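User: Here's a chain of 167 residues. Predict its fold as tokens.
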Amino acid sequence: RVPVRNWFVEPFAAYHGVPAYGYRMLEQRKRLKLEFTNKSGSQIEQLRKSGVEITEYYEHVTFAITGDTGPGIDSDLIRNADVLFHESTFVDEEERVGVLHATMLEAFELACTAGVKHLVLYHFSQRNSLIKIRNAASMLQAQVNFTGRLTILTGHARSGTVAYNQT
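Assistant: Prediction complete.
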């Protein structure tokens, strides 16, 4: 865990046949303790003035990136993340070779299960056209009922990256 002000960068295991990691950025935040959420504003103010600690710190995932990975990322590691970058080498299961890379469906399912707000798909196989990727993304987004924001990053380093946004 690497601290950066009120943030932490933390690695987590990815599944790639060799030791591999994803990373998440956690922000330390403060919130009202659960036992006080049903109190009125004036009651909370009285408790605070009497010395009762009414708030608590918690860690919020602001950003996570899976890196190269197959299926199996623990959804609790990215619960309620603001942004998840998830590799999607394979658009569908039929084109998958081995389990060292993820499918687009696995990325959508993980994002849904974890309650991710913005999913960024990247690392597509060069065999896939942008049209095929867009069509598959639209179908899978509806299939798993992903209601967050979606960004698809395609392209290659030599030709530059093309971003396609879809909400």
